[in-house]
Specification:
Number of domains: 2
CATH architecture of the largest domain: Roll
Number of strands: 18
Distance between the termini: 47 Å
CATH topology of the largest domain: Mannose-Binding Protein A, Chain A
Structural class: alpha+beta
Strand content: 15-25%
Radius of gyration: 22 Å
Length: 348
């Protein structure tokens, strides 16, 4: 994506990572970890552009680390003033340890609750703090600080070329993603989205988690892990609605687990046919072990590359497979809302 002439990309496919891992992931694609912009207004614009492109729940690491008294960009050596107006309340305060790194706020409520304050800090080694925010490498401009009039950052946006870094585009306005799911609807509490009469919510703040952790996180808010919809068309619509609401990179766990021969919903006990047309290619195949769980595809390219195939599977214990997808408990027996005829799943 392009923000005021500089090209950026968030890598979300591994969930939240440490600052060092984020730095390495950017370098692996021929980029660098994003350097805090020179001008206040560019930093404020970057937060909004990141949220427009990647949606909510997108806090990211920036390439600046504490040196004991202040935050210093790497590379470049510019320091970020501790009195900069860009800091979120009480940041950085005393948190200028060499073990603390700089972050870009990635929560939509911050645009209204703390406008003009896109920066905060976190422990560099914390695996649950942020995604990598990568930047096309450009010459650094050492010696400048944030706050007050300073020279414009010296990156030059050009048209996309075959040699460009994959996934990072330049030139033209950044597209704004319009969410289509209705989070504020009768029957859905705040923070939940509506998909064909059922209320759902993704938790992204801890990054990817195991199936069991996802289940517990849903229960902690008085919900259940999302149960696969009864009708094929509702399952297909759910994938699209989740992607519309939460953007790309949103694979989620569903409440169905292998029993050795098939996937069985929990609760409910319905089994999902191994020949269902909803399975992504080669899934589930032999992968119906009790150690494998059901997932909802969360990659936008799947809408065109594998339309009508929203389901796949993954090891339940993997911490790098999916986010929790929670569902309101709106059925007394199983938590399932039945919507019309034509169930996609056979009775056990």
């Amino acid at each position: 994506m392009n923000s005021r002439g500089t090209c950026y990309m968030i890598l979300k496919h591994k969930g939240y990572v440490t600052w060092e891992v984020a730095k390495s992931m950017c370098e692996d694609i021929g980029a660098i970890m994003a350097i805090p912009p020179l001008r206040d207004e560019d930093a404020i614009a970057l937060r909004k552009d990141v949220l427009d492109e990647y949606c909510d729940f997108s806090p990211t690491w920036l390439s600046a680390r504490g040196d004991g008294t202040r935050y210093v960009t790497q590379p470049g050596g510019r320091h970020i003033s501790n009195t900069s107006p860009l800091w979120w309340d009480r940041n950085p305060g005393p948190l200028v340890s060499t073990d603390y790194c700089m972050q870009l706020d990635g929560w939509k409520f911050g645009l209204t609750d703390r406008p003009g304050k896109p920066y905060f800090t976190g422990p560099c080694s914390n695996e649950y703090r942020g995604f990598p925010l990568c930047q096309e490498e450009t010459p650094a401009s050492p010696g400048n600080e944030t706050g007050g009039p300073v020279p414009v950052i010296t990156t030059q946006a050009t048209a996309v070329t075959p040699e460009g870094t994959p996934g990072i585009t330049t030139g033209g306005p950044v597209p704004v993603i319009t969410t289509q799911a209705t989070a504020v609807t009768p029957g859905c509490r705040d923070g939940f989205m509506n998909s064909r009469g059922t209320c759902y919510k993704i938790f992204k703040h801890k990054g990817y988690v195991t199936w069991d952790v996802a289940k517990s996180m849903c229960e902690d808010i008085g919900a259940i892990m999302a149960i696969p919809p009864l009708r094929d068309e509702d399952a297909i619509a759910l994938r699209k609605d989740v992607l519309d609401e939460y953007c790309d990179y949103s694979p989620t766990w569903l409440s169905a687990r292998g029993d050795g021969t098939r996937y069985v919903t929990q609760p409910g006990g319905r089994h999902i046919s191994n020949t269902s047309p909803l399975w992504w290619d080669r899934n589930p195949g032999p992968l119906v072990s009790t150690e494998w769980c059901l997932q909802l595809d969360g990659w936008k390219f799947g809408l065109t590359d594998r339309p009508g195939k929203p389901y796949f599977t993954g090891p339940c214990s993997s911490e790098y497979r999916g986010f929790p997808l929670c569902q309101e408990t709106n059925s007394a027996s199983t938590g399932v809302t039945t919507r019309g005829q034509g169930p996609a799943m056979a009775a056990p």
